[in-house]
Amino acid sequence: MAAAPASSDMFDEIVMAEERFHGEGYQEGYAEGSHLGVVEGRRYGSLHGAKMGSEIGCYLGFALTWQCLLQKCTDEKNSKKRRALDSLIGMIQKFPYEDPTYDKLQEDLEKIRGKFKQVCSMLNIQSDFRIGTERSSLTF
Questions:
Q1: Is 138 helix (H, G, I), strand (E, B) or coil?
Q2: Which of 66, 85, 92, 128 is most exposed, with the fewest beta carbons within 10 Å of its own?
Q3: Is the torsion defined by CA of 117, 119, 124, 127 positive or negative?
């Protein structure tokens, strides 16, 4: 009688093998997928963070250059331009570079882009910031 339960356990193992292998395969796939997801997310974040940093850096360089050029001009027209440049520089300096979880990151970037376009309009400059695979450029 002891032989019957042993053969029953052997059949249970065979019947349950598919379920066991399915569970093990799922766990292995989940672990590998999680790892690959982290790697891909890091690569994606680095790429888009670099593009955003390049864009904001270009805006800051542009604003600081024009601020220096307009420093000696004291008329009212240039005073408005300087105030707009100061506002753009202030927005860029307050931008949360270190916090990718900041919930208004895209919203603040859009405000900076809008202020940049406003400053370009005041300075009678056509703005065209492009980031391409060949090169980055800001054309005037």
A1: strand
A2: 128
A3: negative
Coil vs helix vs strand at 129: strand
Model pTM?
Answer: 0.68
Q: For 88-124, how does the pLDDT look when each residue is reduced to its tens digit (9 = 90+)?
A: 999 999 998 888 788 888 899 999 999 999 999 999 8
Burial grade of 84 (CB within 10 A; 0-12, 13-18, 19 or more): buried
DSSP class of 71: T
pLDDT, mean of residues 45-63: 90
Closest CA to 92 of 111, 120, 65, 118: 111
Tokens of 90: 């202030």
**Residue 4 contacts by C-beta under 8 Å, 6 or more apart in sequence?**
none
CA distance 112 to 140: 18
Count of C-beta atoms within a 10 Å radius of residue 71: 10
**Interhelix angle for 76-94 vs 3-69, to 10°?**
160
